[in-house]
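re: ur question from yesterday

yeah so i grabbed the chain u mentioned. its 201 aa long if i counted rite. heres the sequnce exactly as i have it in my notes:
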Amino acid sequence: MNNKWGVSLLAAIALQFGCWGTAFAGASFMHTGGRTTQPVGHYEFCQSLPQECRQATPKQAPVELTRKLWDKIVAVNNTVNMSLVPRTDMEMWGREEVWSYPANGEGDCEDYVLEKRRKLMQAGVPAGNLLVTVVRQPSGDGHAVLTVHTSMGDFILDNLESRVLAWSETEYTYLKRQSDRNSGAWVTINDGRADAVASVR
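ran it thru and got these structure tokens back, copy pasting raw so excuse formatting
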């Protein structure tokens, strides 16, 4: 990546974050830990579509965040957010935690994530850079977002947010995500926020 393009991209990102400082602060990576339990919805998704959970990615540097890729990430986030109508699993299936690709133009947060992941993989982004991620909202409710692991940091695609934000710029507490080596495995996330809360109590 040439310096001119790198500065231009950071400027574009800064427009979303509001200032240069947060743009550079956003260019950081989540701290992941060891293996952890797979969400039950993802486990059942893997049972119905085994190929989705057998995607292996060699250990390598994150995908380079070029101008073209950034535009694609933003476009996919916008397109999927605007094309789907939010519906809960209970409304669609009569039970909780059904992970699936959107059907009939409807879906819940996991369905938005899976569709964005699929579209970005079709655009050539390796599976190991597109990680389904489980978070906790400030309200305490669980939620799923897509982490795009890039050379300039981890960015979040979210059906509750029109902007593509750096992970550190969101208000979520990050719990776990898919492994960047194996799409069927999950790892813990420690972003430091839980430790900070625990130290106050």
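noticed a couple things. The chain has one domain: 29-200. also Residues 29-200 form a domain with the C8orf32 fold fold (CATH 3.10.620.30).
anyway ttyl
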